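4.2 Preliminary Data

To establish feasibility before requesting continued support, the project team ran the inverse folding procedure on a target of 473 residues. The structure was first converted into the token representation described in Section 3, and no sequence information of any kind was made available to the design step. The complete token record follows.
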């Protein structure tokens, strides 16, 4: 009936049959007809008057009634909607979705995930149960955009102790992961056409955010000291995104001279640095260099990190530390985009940290991951020596296997996929300047036997030179 009215088949003012007759004609229950009429009356398509039955409303705008009739093929409003091309904003037309991750059974060498099957869910359930059992009004009510205060305090304390970040808890904004921290920083600090410097190769998720906002990306090539400092000749860079603790994807830790040079450049150019501390929690050698944020005067650097990679991916909780003068702008932006991250989740996480479970989980996982890394490096030394090299792994859930000259990472990735071995060519993360041939290899979430299988399969692939060698003239 609704489409009949919109297409003009049922005319304004036309009287409809009585519900009883309608039900008989169409062989449906009368109750159904009564309900449908009542619904259409409440939506304004029909009017019902005592004594004169039900009629099509007379005050529906003419153009609304005629529009669908002009379309020949479309007979229902839904079909005509589908036929019309979507009219997108400039932002939406620049959007590309985040690449979907691989799920299901964890194969060698799935990267970017922790061994979340080892997460102490029983402890988490106990803490969550306790919180819910004594849920106060304030826990069920909406919260502050910057986050649950005890969690912000716990994060500030943790970052001060373990990452050398200098901040007050008021500077901490709880977000749903680093991805959301990058998006928020880009919204608050960039306008379309602004320049953003980022590592090349670098984190795809950041590049997608900057591109969607219409920013121009200035590549920062990466070498053995980390990202290079943007040239003084490139003017008007508003934001510089870096992963100094464990460069994504090359896993290089930025040297101290490079860190100081980058801070100096930021001071001179007036650019903000967005420091992504992703994947820094699990260190296997040496002491971590303190965060860039703690080395500077606290005005240039925004610092972000994630709990999802330390605990479990579905958690989607992270943090962003901003200079004091940016706190209000970030809170306002968060209040109209996400409002805030679930308060109950934040409260349970605060309890988890305060009771020492977070530090204990990191310690346990560091030992587990170190064992798995050892399995991987030994297997690589045994089966792939001279063809693939894993350099010093200082931290993280993954590493890079650098290929001997002449071997083509993309061809090897394709051959490995057929053998259910997951690899990513480092070049995939590049905007163009990265040429070295490397394979991104996750080890943290992968069982030792599966790591060994992956290396054996790789050795089989490399034993067949035609499958992976670049043709050279
Ligand atoms: C360098 C880097 N930063 C951030 C993220 C995303 O972090 P989150 O899951 O907290 O959004 C990733 C995910 O792979 C990453 O590689």
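Position-by-position output of the design step:
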């Amino acid at each position: 009936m609704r489409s009949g009215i919109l297409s003009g088949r049922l005319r304004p003012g036309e009287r409809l049959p009585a519900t009883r007759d309608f039900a008989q004609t169409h062989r449906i229950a009368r109750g159904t007809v009564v309900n449908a009429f009542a619904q259409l009356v409440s939506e304004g398509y029909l009017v019902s008057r005592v004594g004169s039955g039900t009629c099509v409303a007379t005050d529906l705008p003419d153009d609304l009634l005629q529009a669908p009739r002009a379309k020949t093929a479309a007979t229902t409003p839904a079909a005509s909607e589908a036929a019309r091309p979507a009219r997108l904003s400039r932002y939406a037309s620049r959007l590309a979705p985040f690449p979907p991750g691989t799920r299901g059974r964890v194969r060698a060498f799935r990267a970017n995930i922790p061994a979340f099957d080892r997460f102490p869910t029983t402890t988490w359930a106990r803490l969550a149960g306790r919180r819910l059992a004594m849920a106060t009004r304030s826990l069920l009510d909406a919260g502050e955009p910057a986050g649950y205060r005890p969690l912000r305090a716990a994060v500030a304390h943790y970052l001060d102790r373990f990452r050398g970040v200098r901040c007050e808890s008021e500077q901490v904004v709880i977000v749903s992961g680093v991805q959301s921290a990058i998006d928020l920083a880009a919204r608050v600090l960039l306008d379309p056409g602004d320049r953003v410097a980022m590592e090349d190769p670098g984190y795809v998720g950041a590049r997608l955010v900057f591109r969607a906002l219409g920013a121009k990306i200035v590549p920062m090539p990466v070498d053995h000291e980390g990202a290079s400092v943007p040239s003084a000749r490139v003017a008007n860079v508003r934001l510089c995104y870096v992963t100094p603790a464990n460069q994504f994807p090359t896993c290089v830790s930025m040297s101290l001279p490079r860190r100081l040079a980058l801070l100096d450049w930021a001071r001179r150019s007036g650019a903000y640095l967005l420091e992504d501390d992703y994947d820094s929690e699990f260190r296997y050698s040496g002491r971590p260099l303190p965060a860039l944020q703690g080395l500077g005067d606290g005005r240039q650097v925004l610092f972000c990190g994630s709990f999802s990679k330390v605990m479990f991916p579905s958690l989607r909780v992270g943090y962003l530390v901003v200079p004091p003068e940016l706190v209000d702008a970030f809170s306002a932006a968060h209040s109209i985009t996400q409002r805030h991250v679930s308060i109950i989740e934040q409260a349970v996480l605060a309890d988890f940290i305060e009771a020492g479970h977070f530090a204990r989980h990191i310690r346990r996982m560091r030992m587990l991951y170190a064992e798995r890394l050892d399995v991987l490096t030994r297997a690589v030394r045994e089966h792939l020596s001279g063809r693939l090299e894993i350099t010093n792994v200082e931290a993280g859930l993954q590493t890079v296997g650098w290929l001997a000259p002449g071997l083509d990472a993309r061809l090897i990735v394709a051959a490995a996929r057929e053998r259910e071995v997951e690899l990513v060519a480092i070049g995939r993360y590049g905007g163009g300047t990265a040429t070295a041939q490397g394979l991104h290899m996750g080890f943290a979430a992968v069982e030792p036997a599966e790591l060994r299988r992956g290396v054996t399969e790789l050795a089989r692939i490399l034993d067949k030179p035609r499958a992976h060698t670049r043709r050279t003239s």
